[in-house]
Amino acid sequence: MSSKVRIDITDYTFHMSYAATERFEMELAPGGLALVQDLLNTIGVGGPRYPDLLQEVRPAQQWLDAALEQWAESTGAGRLPDIALSGRDLPRLRAVRDRLHAGLCRHEPSGPEPSGSIRLTMSADGRIEAHPEGRGVRWITSALLAEMYEAQRKDVWRRLKICRYEKCAVAFYDRSRNNSGVWHDVRICGNTVNLRASRARRRQLS
Fold first, then answer.
1. Which domains are seen in the chain, by residue range?
2. Which residue, 169, 160, 164, is CA-closest to 182?
3. First CA to last CA across the chain, in angstroms?
4. Of the N and C termini of the chain, which has fewer Cβ atoms inside 10 Å?
5. Nearest Cα to 173, choosing from 18, 14, 63?
6. Does 131 have pLDDT greater than 70?
7. Residue 157 DSSP code
């Protein structure tokens, strides 16, 4: 995937990219798992510079269109359905995001359990392919669950994590050899947390 894409968060103009993740200057998860990562990274972080992309219909629609186009290109998913989000869809999409976030953080989930439908077909060369079904947010959820299942089958789901710094909480793909990463950026979040812990220890000793 080319990194030379236009990402203007202020204007909400995304052109076939995983803009939610790229705005944090992070590497993407491999294959279709990047779509799951990108949904998680639509969260609002640190004020107006990184707004919640699912809070209003216009940015949500533009994020979705760009992310699905990128997903289809990277996975060979073929023709995408036309999905026009409405104001009623946004709470449902945020609820899916919240359940995925809670699962990765191993928190007690709240809200309805995400569900979807997947149709399996056999290609000419004998490969089994999964195709999301449904309409609107249900189709989106089906696509996400299919990618999560594939990631679990390949044993890479455990590498998709949420940054441990509570004021950050962006999703990153841990490429460390022993899967030991806990910060999306050690220089930013890791140093901040470690500095706070060091100051707290000094206060206790003083």
1. 7-205 (1.10.3300)
2. 164
3. 53
4. C
5. 18
6. yes
7. G
